[in-house]
Amino acid sequence: MHQGQHSGGIPRLSGSVAGVAMKPARPPAIPVTTPRRRFLRGLLLLPGIATLPLAGTATGQTAAAFTPRISEWPLPKPMFARSYAIAPDGRLYIAVPNDNKVLRFDPRSASFREWELLPGHHPNSIIVDRHGTVWTTGFGNDTIGRLRTRGSMIAEFHVPSRGSGPHTLALSEDGTTLWFSMQTGDRIGSMDIATGRIAEYPTSGRPSGITIDHQGRVWWCRASDDRLGHLEPGSGNIGELELGSGSRPRRIATAPDGMLWVTLYGRGHLVKVDPVSMKIVKTYTLPGGNAGAYAVAVDAAGIVWASEIRRDTIVRLDPSTEVMQTIRLPTGNAGIRKLTPDGAGRLWYTGSHNGRLGFVEAE
């Protein structure tokens, strides 16, 4: 675990843990009951729900080759997912804070399984490490949660600062360290997975979205400060990058080429940042204007995806041509706060408002 000096002094450490073995909860698989079901590549697809209005282009480009197909499933009961993560085996783990549960979705069988977490946890973010262990941020009780699905073993690791609101997770490239934002406590945390020890670093601006660049530096969004923060794990040194008044950065993602992409919620912009020079490379105005630029992800081909949370749309940007397309989701009031490509050509999303899970792929 990183224990180096940083600009705010020595990080605070914690190692307290509470755990319990939970009895496996195996509800029956919940099939989608939409008429005219059909299967493709082992996945249940809903016909006739994909639409693609071409909302805008850049630098004179006029067309794009991507034709989308969208597939959706309702979550069991009236559940509203906040975040999700794709496991090494291709299954999805979904954080449902209001129900205090983690769901697992198997795309091959279109079925769900659920685990109830320790009281008061209310998971906001979720990640799965290379061993298949599930980690969550306990926004409700200031903990980092661990779920080992084999045996349904659940544990919690308490952060030093109470009322800090652990928010969003990122995993170091070597898989040994969890990094997380602490929104209400204005801190960044790190946790050594092997020992459970937690360090905290001071920041400001209600930190939320977080990522790790190819040099191992940690970057996060400071929406209330209109800045990005960055931290060098080896030294603990903290810096910042100004994004302009009213920008309100919300989420951040690292691209395969090492560039960072940031959604500016306050301006409806998508920003490309060079983490080496620590400068803004380019700013793109999203087609919806001030439509609540929120989630952002970059797939293996370098295509950038961003959600416009007020319009129920996902924007696809090809940086090589600077062509943007708007994909309108089939179900309204979606509330897309997380986007993740799965490496098989699908972009997954969850609706935090409408309780649906879906993906976009090429027709």
Percent of residues in β-strands: over 45%
Please, what is the average pLDDT?
86
Distance between the termini: 45 Å
Q: Name the poorly predicted regions.
A: 1-60
The major pleated sheet works out as: 5 strands, antiparallel
Number of distinct helices: 0
Which sequence of strands runs across the widest sheet?
A: 1-18-17-16-15
Tell me about this structure.
- With 363 residues, this protein is an all-beta fold.
- It is built from no helices and 33 strands.
- It has strands at residues 12-14, 17-21, 38-40, 43-45, 56-57, 68-74, 83-86, 92-96, 101-106, 111-116, 123-128, 134-138, 143-148, 153-158, 166-171, 177-182, 187-192, 198-202, 207-212, 218-222, 227-231, 238-242, 249-254, 260-264, 269-274, 279-285, 293-298, 304-308, 313-318, 323-328, 336-341, 347-351, 356-362.
- The strands form eight sheets. It has a five-stranded antiparallel β-sheet with strand order 1-18-17-16-15, with no helix packed on it. A five-stranded antiparallel β-sheet has the order 2-14-13-12-11, with no helix packed on it. Strands 5-30-29-28-27 form a five-stranded antiparallel β-sheet, with no helix packed on it.
- The radius of gyration is 20 Å and the shape is globular.
- The termini are far apart.
- Mean pLDDT is 86; it is low at 1-60.
Strand and helix map with partners:
Layout: E1 12-14, E2 17-21, E3 38-40, E4 43-45, E5 56-57, E6 68-74, E7 83-86, E8 92-96, E9 101-106, E10 111-116, E11 123-128, E12 134-138, E13 143-148, E14 153-158, E15 166-171, E16 177-182, E17 187-192, E18 198-202, E19 207-212, E20 218-222, E21 227-231, E22 238-242, E23 249-254, E24 260-264, E25 269-274, E26 279-285, E27 293-298, E28 304-308, E29 313-318, E30 323-328, E31 336-341, E32 347-351, E33 356-362
Antiparallel strand pairs: 1-18, 2-14, 3-4, 5-30, 6-33, 7-8, 8-9, 9-10, 11-12, 12-13, 13-14, 15-16, 16-17, 17-18, 19-20, 20-21, 21-22, 23-24, 24-25, 25-26, 27-28, 28-29, 29-30, 31-32, 32-33
